[in-house]
Amino acid sequence: MTSAFISHELKAFWRSKNTGKSIAIRIVMGILILFLFGYALLLGIVLPKIIEEVSKTDPIISFCGILLVYFLFELLMRLQLQELPTLRVQPYLHLPVKRNALVTYLATTSLLSVFNLWPFLLFWPFIFQVIAPDEGAIVALAFIVSILGFSVFNNYLALYIKRKANLNGWIFLVVVIGLSLITSGDYVWHLYSLRDFSYAFFGKLIHTPAYALIPVVLALGMYYLNFVYLKQNLYLEDLNSSKKSSFKSSTDYPVLQRFGTVGDLVANEVKLIMRNKRPRSTIIMGLMFMFYGLIFYTNPKLGTSDYSAIFVGVFMTGIFIINYGQFMHSWQASHFDGLLVSRINFTDFIKAKFLLFTMVSTVAFVLTIPYVYFGWRILIIHFVMYVYNLGVNTAIMLFFANRNYKRIDLSKGASFNWEGVGATQLLVGFPLLLIPFIIYAPFRFFGVANAGLVALALIGIAGIALRQVILKGLVDDFNTKKLQIAEGFRNK
Fold it and tell me: How many CA atoms lie within 13 A of 187 on its CB side?
């Protein structure tokens, strides 16, 4: 059956109307991957010399210490970049095809991921150059088997997390935050050493090669867990049965219920974000940008000047507005025609976007409060830029969103995906970044920097106070552009 599935997949690819575009993209990606493989292999060949120059301990001890760290970072990268293997299951469900054959195909094709090749290119040269001559072939084989086991374990663990996250987006965020905290505990807070944990296992392979069977067992267990999960959820009704029993209302977030229809629309937007990889990446990127200030405020060359604080404040409190807002209507491209013929009031539709921006930016500002450590002025500037983002940048983003006619397919991943990106996204950066400095710079030039901050704050407050006027203008603008937007979204 595997050969039949592969044949069907190839026929579906060649018969697609976008075959030419897909081939061009695959050729470019293939060349890029070959370059990366070449660099990885080169790094693996010179790894013994690098470890010898950087580390003052035995090269094998240092090598054992970096393996666990590598697999932690690899898991984080897999969660971001590795695609789920797909197969159009529905056409086979009414045929005499065993469910085990379908599930086995889905489970085994994931091993074709390029991530499973990185460890061999990076670590096999070291094993053959250093470990095999010093410790013997049995120990070298134990390292190869254990690295293979951990790589396969990571492969299926990442897929299991992403499949569970498709039903509950919070799972993905919890896992990413957990991995970030684990690495921060070593490299930021120095509470423990991941290298010591790594050596505690891989160092034992030198004296007891049988320990290599542990990662193999873990890999087989994770494969079985994926197999069972896929088999249980192979039918669409199986995926939806648990949701039907726990259904409450269109708004599962009590804090949004007070906003009525607008709250329902925001709740649906939040669900869209959490259940799809590309919009969900905007949340993850926003969390990562909360550390952006450390790059500036801990660097003596960049310092804590007002210009740096304004720049950082715009990004940290407005990164979601920038990353998500520029594709505001494109996220609904697949059902945009349905929105146009529905009974949704588009004033509420645009108002929901404002509310979503306000909520996420408020959370972002709260997360930046610890930067008061670098001075109260830093916190004040962050608050000013938070108000400015709500009053000005939200309106700018929605204005440009009305001019983005490129669709986004939510079923595709976020990595190397340029759908929805056009000239509009390049132009929108100028007003977002330049206007605050244009307003502030003259006041700073004449020695009244505080007045410049007050001016930014007042402009932001004016934008919030005039939101109803701005909202009406955006709705009118949307009504004149909605047919063009819908036509653009239909072009796949």
Answer: 9
- H helices within 446-466, ranges in order? 449-465
Structure-block tokens of residue 209: 């090669």
> Which amino acid, residue 57?
T
- For all residues of the chain together, what is the average pLDDT? 83
Distances 200 to 71, 208, 274 between C-alpha atoms, Å: 15, 12, 37
Q: Please indicate, yes or no, whether the overall pTM of this predicted structure exceeds 0.70.
A: no
What local confidence, expressed as pLDDT, does residue 433 receive?
Answer: 78
Q: Domain boundaries in the chain?
A: 44-237, 265-490
With 70 as the cut, is the pLDDT of residue 15 above it? no
- The DSSP secondary structure of 92-109, one letter per residue, reads HHTTT--HHHHHHHHHHH
Structure tokens at 61: 């001890």
> Which residue shows structure tokens 């013997």?
136
Q: What angle do CA 171, 406, 468 make, to 5 degrees?
A: 80
CA atoms of 6 and 28, how far apart (whole Å): 23
| Count of CB atoms situated within 10 Å of the CB of 411 | 11
- pLDDT one-digit tens code per residue, 237-251: 443 333 443 434 444
Q: Give, rounded to a whole angstrom, the gap between the first and last alpha carbons of the chain.
A: 32
Q: How far is CA 34 from CA 40, 168, 416, in A?
A: 10, 35, 16
- d(CA 226, CA 106) in angstroms, rounded, equals 10
**In angstroms, how far is CA 474 from the centroid of its own chain?**
30
Q: DSSP letters of 237-272?
A: HHHHHHHHHT---S---HHHHTTTHHHHHHHHHHHH
Looking at the chain, the whole-number percentage of residues with pLDDT higher than 70 is 85
∠ Cα 480 482 488 (to 5°): 125
Going along 417-459, which residue ranges are E strands? none
The number of beta carbons lying within 10 Å of the beta carbon of residue 427 is 11
